[in-house]
Write a structure and sequence with these properties.
heterodimer; A: alpha/beta; six-stranded mixed β-sheet; four-stranded antiparallel β-sheet; globular; B: about 525 residues; alpha+beta; about 15% strand
Chain lengths: ~250, ~525
């Protein structure tokens, strides 16, 4: 029985301008992400997978095409709605972690709650927020490092803090942009195991971008991207083929 | 919430930004010090000027003055109504002061004022600037035994003691000279074989007195009314009419080798001086009158201390012939008014001018502010210009903050991208930097406030310290007559200086904050 679709992209086109010449990056991408699955998006560098992720996270706007989150179009939604979407509905983890260097691990984890709530409501639910942040740090196994700054942590630890941060607002979808790209194989494996565990135990939906076929192979669904187009879909047993959906 | 947290973290970790607000700190501290000292000075000056001059002054320019001051006062009372609190009449006349100092005549131009001590003190400060503590309580024109200015050793003997010592010394010398003269005459007679002293002997005896240093009191230049009095006065026990001299009319102030301020008095309480002034009659004659110095007047305003001499009103009126021989009504030249606190002096002045129009009366009606107008407006202008200049310093500091903030925004580009990816709005991101500017402004101007207030509090100690190190007197009491640097801190000044500095810091952070808000999240995240 196929799970419901969380995120849908239709006919996404995006090109960058360089010296008055349009350089197409995405040439009409269709994609869907189903709930409770790890969906991998694999492709070489320059294939446009990061750009696609930015469009899906509403960090950028497509030239053409649409993005739907749970059936609602979000790519052209008002700014406040998109900010809320990023803050509340999805969690993003990056290749370079992007932790705020001035804040300790727990403060970094608390950041989305601070951003999403006004000063007043944040203070009102302060202890609750703290409990949740500690629980998230515990979930990624870093509670003992709560007071440490990012500069005092290893890459794997930083990525785990970033995952805890992404989980802080209880997102429906986790977007992971090369989460292991900056880590050695062993640490990368640890992170992947953590993600798989999150999927298994918390039923988290994950869209993971990677250039590593091996990692992609371990996903439930795998889309291959080349030259701004999605070419094939592999390892899908229980979901209907994309072609069916398009038809 | 996150912006406060981030701001505080930035504040704690970005020392370069703290460096950029040092100029704000310095600017604020300087503004507070300058304003406090300027307002201390001007308040002190206002107080003194206002203390010395009454609220409103009606001067008559005619030599004879205005007859029947009581009728004038009734009229003034009608105009001022309940605002009139006190009044005093006086006679003011330009005159020449002559002091006999070691056989030489020292001449000074002074403004001789005849006043009634009781009422004069009610319209302006007079008694409190006298040297004798008793005179400060109630001014008197009688010479006192001693006790003038207990803290000045130069005046330790002043009073009757000084007068008796001086007179006995003079008499001793006179006796010696007379004996010498007699002896010379004796010798001369013996030599020439004559038995009776002649004219020549007198001349020879005079020659033995030695060279003369100019005219002295024994050869009055102008004959006047004092000749009668001189005969009647025994200087050992009696005094001439009392006079109070402005301290700078009869003294010089200088520094000795050790750098100590020293005063030299040509005349001190107990000495006699001569005043030469015109009488009040239509046909002007010069009056030459001897007075005994009974006290000195030191207000701290060099203009007043070097031009004023005070005598009793009734005596001056007598000397100048300002009493109508038939009716006995006395004339005065000046009426001074004291008005109730908060009265609009200009309104009263204009009403009085309407009543005594300059076309009919040779009166000059002025408020104390009119009298000191140029000085007061100069101080005001100085304060304004200093404030503008110092605020320019803070504005320059603002540009420093602007540049630093741009650097910080560039440095924080990736963090800005991260915040936006986490759902922060453009306004939220810009408010981080605005709040940062606000905090920096508060920290900078707060430090400046504390520094400035401490400086003001210890300004005299600091001046002393500077003197010790540089050997240069920072605050010269021979110039200012204040022994300490006066300061007044107005809370209102502090508030607007703080608001101005914080405002400049916030304004300087607007542009960088807008730049941060407009940053594209994807480009920011990719920023290396």
């Amino acid at each position: 029985m196929p799970t419901p679709i969380v995120l849908t992209a239709r006919g996404l086109k995006k090109s960058y301008h360089k010296d008055r010449i349009d350089v197409p990056v995405l040439r009409g991408v269709d994609l869907e992400v189903r709930q409770g699955l790890v969906t991998a998006l694999v492709g070489r560098s320059g294939s446009g997978k990061s750009t696609l992720m930015h469009l899906l996270a509403t960090l950028d706007r497509p030239d053409e095409g649409e993005v739907f989150f749970r059936g609602n179009r979000i790519d052209n939604a008002p700014r406040a709605v998109r900010d809320r979407y990023r803050n509340h509905e999805i969690g993003i983890i990056f290749q370079f972690y992007h932790l705020l260097p001035e804040l300790s691990a727990i403060e970094n984890v608390l950041a989305p709650a601070m951003i999403g709530q006004s000063v007043w409501s944040y203070f009102k639910s302060r202890s609750e927020n703290h409990r949740r942040a500690e629980a998230m740090l515990d979930r990624v196994g870093l509670l003992h490092r709560a007071k440490h700054r990012p500069s005092e942590m290893s890459g794997g630890e930083m990525q785990r803090v970033a995952i805890a941060r992404a989980l802080m607002t209880d997102p429906k979808l986790l977007l992971a942009d090369e989460p292991t790209g900056n880590l050695d194989t062993e640490t990368g494996q640890e992170i992947l195991r953590l993600l798989a565990d999150l999927k298994e135990r918390d039923n988290l939906t994950i869209l993971m971008i990677t250039h590593d076929d091996e990692i992609a192979a371990s996903a439930d669904v795998c889309w291959r991207m080349q030259d701004g187009l999605i070419h094939s879909e592999m390892g899908v047993e229980e979901t209907p083929a994309f072609a069916t959906h398009a038809a | 919430m996150y912006r406060w947290l981030l701001c505080f973290r930035y504040l704690k970790t970005r020392y370069i930004a703290l460096a950029s607000i040092i100029s704000v700190t310095l600017g604020v501290a300087t503004l507070i010090v300058v304003n406090s000292v300027m307002s201390g000075f001007s308040t002190e000056m206002h107080e003194r000027l206002h203390g010395l001059a009454s609220d409103v002054m009606i001067e008559c320019h005619a030599t004879g003055g205005m007859p029947d001051p009581d009728a004038h006062l009734r009229e003034i009372e009608r105009i001022c109504g309940s605002a009139l609190v006190g009044s005093s009449v006086s006679v003011s006349v330009p005159s020449m002061l002559g002091i006999d100092f070691r056989g030489q005549q020292i001449g000074r131009h002074v403004n001789l004022i005849g006043l009634d001590p009781a009422t004069y003190d009610s319209v302006s400060d007079f008694g409190k600037y006298l040297l004798h503590p008793e005179n400060q309580k109630s001014a008197s024109f009688e010479l006192r035994e001693s006790g003038y200015a207990p803290d000045r050793k130069e005046l330790a003997a002043a009073g009757w003691r000084h007068r008796r010592d001086r007179v006995s010394e003079e008499r001793r010398i006179e006796q010696m000279v007379a004996q010498e003269r007699k002896m010379m005459a004796e010798l001369h007679r013996k030599a020439s074989g004559q038995t009776e002293p002649t004219e020549q002997d007198e001349a020879a005896a005079n020659a033995a007195k030695g060279p003369s240093f100019g005219p002295s009191f024994s050869q009055p230049l102008i004959s006047g009314s004092d000749d009668r009095l001189v005969a009647a006065v025994d200087p050992m026990t009696e005094q001439f009419p009392g006079i109070i001299l402005g301290i700078s009319t009869c003294s010089v102030r200088h520094r000795d080798e050790a750098g100590q301020v020293k005063d030299h008095y040509y005349a001190q309480p107990g000495d006699d001086v001569r005043m030469i002034f015109p009488n009040a009659a239509g046909e002007t004659k010069v009056i030459n009158q001897k007075f005994t110095v009974v006290d000195l007047y030191e207000s701290g305003m060099s203009e007043y201390d070097s031009t004023f001499a005070f005598v009793r009103l009734d005596q001056l009126q007598e000397f100048r012939g300002m009493i109508d021989p038939e009716t006995g009504v006395r004339s005065v030249t000046t009426i001074q008014l004291k008005l109730a606190e908060g009265t609009d002096l200009n309104v009263i002045r204009d009403a009085l001018r309407d009543r005594f129009p300059p076309e009919l009366y040779a009166y000059n009606i002025q408020t104390w502010r009119d009298l000191q107008g140029p000085l007061l407006s100069a101080v005001r202008l100085e304060t304004t210009i200093l404030n503008i200049l110092l605020f320019l310093i803070i504005a320059v500091a603002g540009f420093g903050i602007l540049a630093t903030f741009f650097m910080i925004v560039v440095e924080k580009t990736r963090d800005i991208g991260t915040l936006k990816a986490l759902g922060a709005s453009g306004r939220g991101v810009s408010s981080i930097f605005m709040t940062y500017g606000l905090l920096l402004g508060f920290v900078g101007s707060g430090a400046g406030l504390i520094g400035g207030l401490l400086f003001v509090h210890y300004i005299n100690d600091i001046a002393e310290l500077l003197e010790m190190f540089t050997g240069q007197e920072v605050f010269d009491p021979t110039v200012y007559y204040f022994t300490e640097i006066p300061t007044i801190v107005h809370p209102f000044t502090l508030v607007w200086v703080m608001c101005g500095a914080v405002g400049i810091a916030v304004m300087a952070s607007v542009l960088p904050a807008m730049r941060a808000a407009r940053m594209h999240p994807v480009q920011a995240l990719r920023f290396e």
